[in-house]
Every structure is written in structure tokens, then in C-alpha cells.
Amino acid sequence: MDPEMLARIQFALTAGFHFLFPPLSIGLGVFLAVVHGIAYKKKEAGWQGLAEFWTKLFALIFAFGVATGIVLEFEFGTNWARYSRFVGDVFGSPLAIEAIFAFFMESCFLGIVLFGRGKVSAGFRYFSVVMMAIGAHLSAIWILVANSWMQTPAGYHLVETARGPRAEITSFWEMVFNPSTLDRIWHVTTAAWTTGAFLVIAVCAWQLLKKRCVPEAQKGLKAGLAFAAVAMALLFASGHSSAVLLEKTQPVKFAATEGIFETGEAASFHLFGIVDEAAGTVHGPEVPGAVNIMLGRGLCADPENPILGLNDVPAENRPPVQLTFQSFHMMVYCGGAMALLLALGFWLWWRGRLFESRWWLSFAVPAALLPQIANQFGWIATEVGRQPWIVQGLLRTEDAFSTNVSGGQLIFSLIFFTLVYTTMALLFLFVFIKKIRDHR
Amino acid sequence: MADFSILQLVWFGLLGVLFIAYALLDGFDLGVGSCLPHFKNERSRRFALETVAPVWDGNEVWLLTAGGALFAAFPHVYASVFSGLYTALVLLLGMLIFRVLALELRDKIESASWRCFWDWSFCISSTMIALLLGVAVGNLVAGLPVDASGEIDAGFLGLLNLLEPIPLLSGLLAVCLLRLHGALFLMIRTGEAEIRFDLLLRLTKEFAATAIFYIALTAWIFVTAPSALHNFKEIPVIGIVPVAAALFLVATGIFIRLQTFRLAFAGTALTIVFLISTVGLGIFPNLVPAIPPENALTIADSASDKTLLVMLVVAILGIPLVLLYHFWVYRAFAPKKISR
After folding, report:
1. How do strand B144-145 and strand B290-291 relate by DSSP bridges?
2. What CA–CA distance (Å, rounded) separates A390 from A386?
């Protein structure tokens, strides 16, 4: 296999595996800040038990996030050397800022939260919980700044240097607040909150099904539902505005996510479908004009300001349409399923039957996977949809990988990371489930 | 000498500060990890692990910060070094992952063999990290094969340079010095007679090993790599720095002998500071000295002045905050609070 494909597979694997953990630390960070806060105020055993139990789970998740995150920071240099040379002047600073303003905050205060009970005052420990949660968010913000710049580069100019052309910064703040930064931060952060909230819901639902720690689980379930409701309302709002922005800033990716081939049509939403790239069409039922309406363009096509179709994009500038389309749709389906489960949950809560309805609790347990699946597919749609560019319009992925790393080295590292990550996944599940089972 | 700006000079210095902070702080927990199997009973192992548990993660972030700063300030060098030393880097990453797992998972299952497995994992990964980083520093002293376009060729399997004497001796010195540093850290954090007795035996052996590798490495560099001494011949006054490193190492030995362990810990800390400074002064203005020398990656291969300036502001704002966090953590887990 060619080195470019191997490097891409390895990055997808390592980034995808890493991203199972940070959304949980971000979401649970907020949850812990609230629950520890209530426990600190009320000094009630139920809340304290909930807070300490979730702190332990948080620690495990955080450690796996750290272990898999280091790989990514080094991988830009190891596997994407030409990319690093080209964008380092712009892209390196958010990474360094993330380390200095976020990683230290998270890891230092986590140390105090985990081991500081009885060694620091309860007030200072609560302060540490809050700082840890803020650190997790700062980390997300800076890495998303870096990613957003790859989608919608701004605040730079191209300079010819002795080592070849590269992007150099002209305005730091324009780079930071590039067109897609704010929408992406909102969408990913609220997705992370949702991911955390659904894990809380799932674990508490399981405890209620097994009649364990009932008072604690009831408190946790209500808190989780409330958190999920807020998060999902913001998630849908940010998802909508991200899509509207995408149509303006990355029209080719937008066309691929919705399977739009003809420029200037009143775009329809495909409920599901199979993309036929050769024929330039999507087979499947559609809601006519739905995408047009969602974009705020009304029912009819606007010839002055048409929606770009893939037929007008040269083949060499198109992303893999099928994968982008299906990933985007999978993300939307998962979002819909989560909203449905949440709505049913609130209805049961309102009728006072939430803790007794075993069928809802039984659905809520595996539902912890839904936001994870949505996160993975969301990123696949985002990153695959940007292809063939690694930096939209500036640098192609085929010009970005390290040419001095051989296929043999890549196969070695790919096998190595696959083995390590498989082992890690098994260990994580084993220990995580054991912690939940042993908690009585 | 290559032309360079004040900002490039400042960033060369700041990178040095970041790597020194990493070696000082993560250095002692790597050392503790490497020494762990020498503690025979569960109680002293637990003590050793509890000493590093609240702080190791913050310490490791210095390495990430140094990596991020290298990317931002010297992107070309970051790209060349990381892709050129691919296999070694993948190994290093594997060891960093393994170490996190060992620390996190060890006490999750009540089983002696489970614990034993993770203790050995912690030991091996800590030792390998120290070794690989020491080898990397050794390669900077000896110089790496760099071609005209700035790509590093690390030889067969991307690993061959590990087998050369200077990098290998440098790696072994790093392992021994950090083990000594870690054992001293444990010593000043415990009042328990039994653990102190074990540690005292350890200290003598680790000091002897450190001294042997230090002398061997120094001698080898003098004999086989006189080019590494170029800067010290040009400006003899900077020779104070390597001499200070040697004196602090000797002082460490004396303080161990006198059983004044806080001073001995300060001794290893200063030895580390001055040894890394020696390497920095020796390679300046190169970041990666090369074979042939004209292909060296220098501090002139930096990001734009604009980025260097932005990052300098970030460092000025960020580092005091980071030091404050560290102050809080280390104060919370200071020994008087542990024993009572």
C-alpha cells in the first residue's frame, strides 16, 4: 500500500481512538463541577457518593485520553512532516498554547482532586474540580482552533522561504477566530457534554435496573437528564448553524454530505440513500426542498445564489462522496435517536414513572454508545469531506505526508498502534465495568 | 556562524528551559519507576507510587509543551527530527502509553500477579523513556546524518544511530542519573526507617553507576568527537558550565555520604540543569548538528518573527500560571502532610 494511504489510516485510527475519551472528560468535567458543588454545599451522603464515584471514573477516562493524546501531538511531525513544515508557523502555536494553558491546568488539578482529600481544604478541592473542568474545555478550544484553521484558513499569507513555500501568520486573532472556529467549538463542546451526560444516564440506569445505590442513582439520573437536555438543545442549534456555515465556507463538502450533484436545484434531504458517484445521483427517498428550507432559502431555488452541486466540481477536487454522505447521515440518525430517548425520559419523569420503567432504563444503558458513534461519524464527515485537501484550498493531503518514512516503517507502526489500542480498549472496558459493578 | 535574530536566540533558550523543566520534574518520577522492582515489599512500593501519583502527569506535560513549542517555533526542525527518528519516536510513544497504563491500572484489581505485571511495566517503560531521551541527546552531541534538504537519515530501521557509542553512553547516563534523582526524591519524602535503609543502599549504587557513565561519556567525547567541543574552544569562559555540572555531581556524592539528602537532591537537580545547558551551549546555534556540518538545522530555521513574538507573549503569560499550579500541587503533597 502506498505511504500516503498508510499514514492516513494511522492518523484516522489514532485520532478516532483518542476521541473516544476527551468528550467524556469534557462532559463529565461539567457534571463533576456541578455535582461536587452540590455535595460541597449540602454535605449530603448521596451527592457526595455520586461525586466521588464519578471522580474515579473520570480519572480512568482522563488517563486514557492523556495516553492516546500524546501520540497525536507527535504524529504531525512523524507522519506529516511536509504538512508541519508548510503550516507550522500558523498551526504550531495553538498546539503549544493548548499544552501550556490547558494540559497543565487539567493534570495538576486532577492530582489534587484525586489524592488531595484530607490534604487540602474542601473548598480548595472544589476549586480544583472547577479548574480541571475549565482546563478540559480550554484544551478542546485550542485544538479546535487548529482544526478549524485547516477547514477555513484565515489570518495568514503564503511566503516563499529557502525551505520552500509556507503559510505564515499575519494576524493571530484572525487565525484564532477563523470563520468556522466558533461554530465548531460550540458544536464539539455541546457534543462532548451530551456524550458525558449520556454516560451518566447509562450508568445510573444500569444501577436502577440492578437496584444498586438507588438514592444515588436516582439523583444522578435526574442530573444527567437535565444536563443532556441543555446540551442537546445547544447541540442541535450549533449543528444547524454549522451546516449553514458549511454551505458558505466549504460548499464542496456540504454538497457531499447531502449528496447534491446538480448546481442550482432546491436541495432535498435524503432520508437515507446510496450515492451513485458515476451516475451523479443518490438512490433513496427524499424530502424535496428540505435542505433548501433548512438553509433559510425557502422552497424555491435561487438562481442568483445557487447551491453548488458536485457535477460542477472537477473530479480531482471532490472528496469521497459516499463516505462523507453516509457518515454525515449516521451522525444525524444518532442525534435523532438520542433526542427521542431523551424526550421519552422527560415524559416518564413528568408522569413520575422514570425510575420504574424498565424498558426505558434498558434502552438508556446502550444509549451511551450513540453520542460516541455520532462523534466518530461527525469527524469522519468533517475530515473526509475536506479531502483532497489537508488545508482547504491550500495544501493537498498527497503533498503533506512524510516522504522520508518508508512503507515498512509505516506498516510496523500501524500494526504496533493497532495492537496497543486493541489491548487498551479491552483493558479500559474491563476496568471501567469492574469499577461500576464493584460500586455498591 | 549562521545569522540569527534575538527572537530566535530567545526561543533557543526557552526550549532549553522547557526541556530542563521536563528532565528535572518528570526525571524523578522516571527514576522512581525505574527503581521500583528494587523495593521488595508491597508497602514500600506503594509508598513510592503514592509519592509520584499526584504529580507525574503534570510533570509529563512539560515534554508535550516542549514538543508543541518546537513545532511552533521551529517547524522545520520539528518535522525533520520527528519524521527522521520515526521508529524511535513510535517506541517512545509506546512507552509513554504503557507507563500511563501501569500507573492507572495497577491498583484496580486485587491480585499480586496483576500488580507485579504493572510494576514491571512501569519500570521498563520509565527506563526506556529515560534511555531513549538520553540517546536523543547523545545524538545531538554526536551529530545526525542530515541531507541538503534537511531530512534526517537515521539509518537501518530508523534505529541504527542508537547503537553508536556516544548516544548509547548518553542514554545509560540518563537512566542512572534519573534513577539517582528519583531515589533521592523518595528519600526526602519519607521518614520511615525501613524504606530509608533500602534507599540508602540504592543511592550508593546509583551514584557509582552515574559517575562511571559520566566519566566514560566525557572521555569518549573528548577522544572521538572533538567537533562537539568547538564552541567551548571558541569561547573558553562558557566552559564554566560543564565544569559546574561535574562539580555538582561530585557534590551530590559528598552529600549522600554526609546523609544530607535535601542537598544531594539539589545536587542531582543542578547536575541535570548544567548537563543539559552544556549540550545547549555545545550545539548552538544548531538545533541539530549534522554530518556533514553545513547541513545542520540551525535556529535560523525558525518560524516567522510574528509567530515567535506571539509565542513569547504566551510563554510570559503562561509559565507563571504553570509554576503557580505546580506550587499548589507540591505544597499539598509535601511530606509533613503525608506523615500526619
Report:
1. parallel
2. 7
- Beta carbons of A59 and B104 less than 8 Å apart: yes
Domain ranges of chain A: 23-178, 185-401
**B chain contacts of residue A66, beta-carbon cutoff 8 Å:** 57, 60, 100
Give the pLDDT confidence of B75-102 residue by residue, as tens digits: 999 999 998 888 889 999 999 999 999 9
Kindly identify which residue of chain B lies nearest to residue A171, measuring between CA atoms. B306
**For B68, which residue in chain A has the nearest alpha carbon?**
A96
The percent of residues above 90 in pLDDT, for chain A, comes to 69
Spell out the residues 6+ positions from residue B61 whose beta carbon is closer than 8 angstroms to its own: A99, A103, A104, A107
Give me the residue spans of the domains in chain B.
6-339
The cell numbers describing B226, all together, are 572533538
Tell me: the pLDDT tens digits for A212-236? 888 889 989 999 999 999 999 999 9
Is B158's Cβ below 8 Å from some Cβ in A?
yes
B108 touches chain A (CB under 8 A): yes
Of A67, A92, A115, the CB nearest to B75: A92
Q: C-alpha angle with apex B315: B311 to B318, nearest 5 degrees? A: 125
DSSP strand pairing (A395-396 vs A389-391) = antiparallel
Query: Touching check for B72 and chain A: CB below 8 Å?
Result: yes
Contact criterion met (CB < 8 Å) for A116 and B67: no
Instruction: ipTM value, please give it.
Output: 0.89
Whether the bond between B285 and the residue before it is cis, its omega within 30 degrees of 0, is: yes
Helix H or strand E encompassing B287: strand B286-288
Q: What is the pLDDT of residues B322-338, one digit of tens each?
A: 999 999 998 888 876 44
Exposed, middle or buried, A1 (CB in 10 Å: 0-12/13-18/19+)?
A: exposed
User: Cβ A85–B322 below 8 Å, yes or no?
Assistant: no
Cβ(B312)–Cβ(A94) under 8 Å? no
